[in-house]
Design brief:
Keywords (chains A, B, C, D): Aminotransferase, Pyridoxal phosphate, Transferase
Oligomer: homotetramer
Protein name (chains A, B, C, D): Alanine--glyoxylate aminotransferase family protein
Family (chains A, B, C, D): Belongs to the class-V pyridoxal-phosphate-dependent aminotransferase family.
Strand content of chain A: 15-25%
GO biological process, one term (chains A, B, C, D): glycine biosynthetic process, by transamination of glyoxylate
Shape of chain A: globular
CATH topology of the largest domain in chain A: Aspartate Aminotransferase, domain 2
Structural class of chain A: alpha/beta
Number of helices of chain A: 12
CATH architecture of the largest domain in chain A: 3-Layer(aba) Sandwich
Order of helices and strands of chain A: EHHEHEHEHEEEHEHEEHHHEEHEEEH
CATH class of the largest domain in chain A: Alpha Beta
Largest sheet of chain A: 7 strands, mixed
Strand order of the largest sheet of chain A: 2-10-9-8-5-3-4
GO molecular function (chains A, B, C, D): alanine-glyoxylate transaminase activity; L-serine-pyruvate transaminase activity
């Protein structure tokens, strides 16, 4: 009767009430009910992102990647861009910009590490960038970049600060206004806990003042096409550029309502506490954490196996009721797996994860010690 | 107790069973259950499109527009493109290509008309095009382009034939293989009857033989990024490029299963018959059809009002339980509204639409004659 | 793609929103959420029954029959009971009382007729009864008994007036207080439009003043066991005697909320108008109505076939998307079928019913005339 | 964000997939889909009860109590009945039989204990009974009666052996055929894990051979009325006596399918193991188990508090995400609470229960020791 808990890195730990809110076969994008849901969803984005009224939120049909690519709206040919990449999803910016005529500098780190302060400062001091991009939580390793420390420094070396918060928003502390970030990106299906189907971002409104049609973006990714829709939608008046993922919007509304009930403060605290208990349990079984100490995220944990193949581990763990994700960082190929613990994750889920890891390991090595559970009852 | 029936043009006439199939909070893209659903959904696309094995189907997170823009995968700078546009969504290609360095020829028609045969032949004889694009059913007016007659002619004047079937696939006869179309585009939420959230297309496999990285597409729209995912997914093995709209895929699987139960032959016949009864009823009340005779689609009908404002009409019709869409073609601004009758549309829905139109009109003009219902009982 | 509409006589014409409200795997009978729903459901019963505060509503797990049998709470051995039965469900009282030591007088009518005024007055004048029972709408034929005319007369000839409103409450005018009925019975799944699973009744509170443990009821049917639960539940404080059908209660709450939105006045009007259109359509095809003129209900219609077997008719009608019920009155065995048109029934459903009848008949007799639809557009 | 887990004693630990299967607004009792579900549900009852073909299963709209009362079908006035009651629900038989003219002997135990062997043998040796009734698991205390040891003894002293398995069937080992029980009773919402709304029982077919209309049952509780329906329904042919709880039947079908997937052997083992871990954890925190050692059930656990009021405990535990049930045995009023761990209960639920107990206790007494979790990782 083992029912599988989804602790993949995206989506992860879903919720029936949130998904059932998206069952709406009689709703189009022009109904009052939808317009109201869209307005609340947009306002919810501002809430979880920590944005004041100087930002405009966007819900774009698609996924986080489309939201990432939409930063091209504010770029022109030959613009200088600095990407601080701590893994596979940081490197995704390289894939994106390879399709455009821009001048990209990308700093890369070893798996589990952040790019070093020295490397960052070296690149910053070398030139002024149009855009500096960093990934808040790197989904491929679980490393968290201390964007709150760097935002002020970046400001002096670029025009536009972009943060990819796909794996952080909704679970980590995000203070877009306070940190003065220009564009913060995420997606519906991770720590916000709605179904996949929407790229999400907030953009500082004043960026549009300098908007030029000469920008390098395509059509769907050109935020100028979406801007009037979001402006009228946040006011409850709807709008149309391309058909929105209607069910996902209703689910987002429900998810944000529950996030407000919990408050972002307590939500961030919960993610922090649970991820700490998880790491403690993992280490007590003799396994390693991919992320370097002090840089562990509260939403994704990479776990280093000792002498067991990660594909086999993930496959075997299914028997104990948890779906983990294999590791995808090429440096550690086959050597680690990943745990998503975001959104609606509970203490019981963490317990279930540890139990599944323990039992999967024990099949492989009967001497595996039981995980330390003391922190669970605090 | 009037419950609203959604007869907007997209989405339109939803179904609970299809949507409930998408409630799956414990499913990520790596589960066996999802891989199986994705495989069946992809095969279902081939079925409704009339494709043999020489085509590869794609499900792209987003909407029909992203599928449209993805044809850039097969274009290079300065390529010559001919677009035969019969309305607003035909003109959308102009918006798309305005972002790219291509040489676009666009033929436009009057509202309700197809571009004339003379105009088409004129343009065809002037040069050889890399790509010729037409819209099967123009959502803004309900006009259907006789692509089955033109496909062979286009073949002689271009390399790649693209058809935008966003408003036709699932309701109109589509024979991609037989007509030798290279790329046929649609979306999840129209005549296929699943929720919005996915752009869908089929691509003749041999197009990828000439693929060059020098193409003009962006990153998300570059089908080469999606190709390996679709190739493994259709075999039931899954794959990843960006997070798929998981619930929409489960809904698509369910929708295609029901479409196979009905068979495409009967489905096309049903759409044809119901749309005929609808038009007959409309005309019997003294209203006009936007589409020129002989070019009416089976999925979308534009209705010309006499002396009533379309916005007001659509608003008032809500009282009688039907949500119609206002007209959006600028030539007929305020003068017509649109009816979506696709996917799961039934005889009762058509009856309800006529009843709502009749009662809305009668409030405005008490002498409005009752709609002719004879064809309903055939 | 023909989707079946349920026009059986119970349940009939369901609603997804009402049923989805009953999906509550995390709710027991002690939760605040359930207590609140139970309170609202009980108050809703009073609303649809037209009861003031001198009545106590009951929701009993089971079906209408258990609610019927619970009138034994107010009966003692050898009590005299008069049942006015207009069909199979009136006769059900005979089955019930055959299990108890009471003195039953039952008046029966011919199929489609009410017991005659002469017969009723004859029995009334013969003795004084402890209880007089009549069926508001007889489900087996669709005949409606004019209880509003008889209530005052009954009062002079008995202590307790019971009305079985299983097939009427929620669709017909019911004024329990105004008519001074002592016990009005119904069930969740008919014109109230919730799922089956609950017997429902209202009882004049002062009946409990004369309650004696010497009554003939069993344990589950003894309303004295349920009384304290309903008294605390209506106040929002819950209570327990046997486990309630939790999901059905949540569905009832939702159903009553929508009934209040519509108002009972408009709901009764809607049922009246739609049933009139239905009968007119049926007659125009040359078929007969089982109920005698002037006694037709707004919720159930029995249809007399000419030379076609009713079982075959009902089976064939499924092909045209409607599930009707076969007739069950032994006098007319095989000669008629029944249509349930209650609760969430719409004009479209009536249209669909007529269409299904027409097409089923036409297969049998090609000369069947088309149904008259004029009244539909009023 | 604490989501409440329902660990009340009935219903307890629900499941969305099982409940969503019951959303069926277009299904009446005459549809092929329902008939098939009803047949599978009836066969599922035989499976979980361990019945061969000499038993007939019944699904009766209502609750477990109505199933209990239906044993009157096989009783006549003045019949001698022995009830072995280990608590409040055993005593419920006293309430039931107080309504009938039978000669009842009821043996009662102290809270947490079973009636002693001596007392049972004393009563058995005193006379021959028509019916001997025992409760397999007493919901008010969690005590399990070793019916497997007594069945043979009972056989020598009575005609009909009845077991109330409301709180055991689906979670405890039940071998109706092997133990030669005549009537085994349960309900849908406990260890079977479907929603409440149905009383369930199996009856040895040969009991009907001696059936007499002179029995003491009422109408709804007279199994002879239901027998033909169940006989045709198990064959997939449907039938009607009173409207079945249609959604509950669909849910039961789904629940039984999953029970077969797990197998009853593994299901019983799971309940046994989890309840053992739960009791171990409870004791390690210094709390007591209501049930005497050796008589603990695998489905319900009563927990003795030390110096804390049970009402307050249950209320406070809600803050930690678990809904427990207060104790209802009058001997221990206010001194204990109850935990339902049935049906879909998982290791994580047990962990959550222990965590909630620990934290609730710690608020009250900071020196409460952490629960022993060692057995959890076995």
């Amino acid at each position: 009767m083992v029912k599988t808990t989804l602790m993949h890195v995206g989506p992860s730990i879903g919720d029936y009430d949130v998904q059932l809110a998206g069952v709406c076969p009689d709703q189009g994008f022009a109904s009052e009910k939808f317009k109201s849901a869209m307005s609340e969803a947009l306002k919810g984005i501002n809430y979880v992102m920590g944005c004041d009224d100087s930002y405009l939120p966007f819900i774009i049909p698609g996924s986080g990647t489309i939201a990432m690519e939409s930063v091209t709206t504010f770029l022109q040919r030959k613009d200088k861009i600095l990407v601080i990449s701590n893994g596979v999803f940081g490197n995704r910016w390289e894939g994106i910009f390879s399709r455009y005529d821009v001048e990209l500098t990308i700093l890369k780190s070893h798996a589990g590490y952040c790019v070093s302060h020295e490397d960052i400062m070296g690149s910053l001091n070398r030139k002024h960038y149009k855009m500096i991009i960093s990934t808040h939580v790197e989904t491929s390793t679980g490393v968290k970049f201390p964007i709150e420390k760097y935002a002020k420094i970046f400001r002096e070396h670029c025009d536009i600060i972009v943060v990819d918060g796909v794996a952080s928003v909704g679970g980590e502390l995000v203070k877009t206004s306070e940190w003065d970030i220009d564009i913060y990106i995420t997606a519906s299906q991770k720590a916000i806990g709605a179904p996949p189907g929407a790229g999400i971002l907030v953009v500082k409104k004043k960026l549009f003042q300098d908007y030029s049609d000469e920008n390098i973006s395509g059509y769907f990714t050109n935020l100028m096409n979406w801007k009037p829709v979001m402006e009228t939608s946040i006011e409850g008046n709807g709008g149309y550029f391309a058909t929105p993922p209607i069910g996902v919007v209703f689910s987002l509304r429900n998810a944000f309502a529950r996030i407000r009930d919990e408050t972002m403060e307590k939500r961030v605290e919960r993610h922090k506490k649970l991820s700490r208990s998880l790491r403690r349990g993992i280490k007590s079984m003799g396994l390693g954490i991919v992320a370097q100490e002090g840089y562990e995220s509260s939403t994704v944990t990479g776990v280093l196996l000792k002498d067991m193949d990660a594909d086999l581990f993930v496959k075997n763990a299914l028997k104990f009721g948890v779906e983990f994700a294999v590791g995808v960082h090429p440096d550690l190929k086959g050597k680690y797996f990943r745990i998503g613990h975001m959104g609606w994750v509970s203490r019981e889920d963490i317990f279930k994860a540890l139990n599944a890891i323990y039992n999967t390991m024990k099949e492989h090595d009967p001497k595996t010690p039981m995980p330390d559970m003391d922190s669970f009852f605090e």
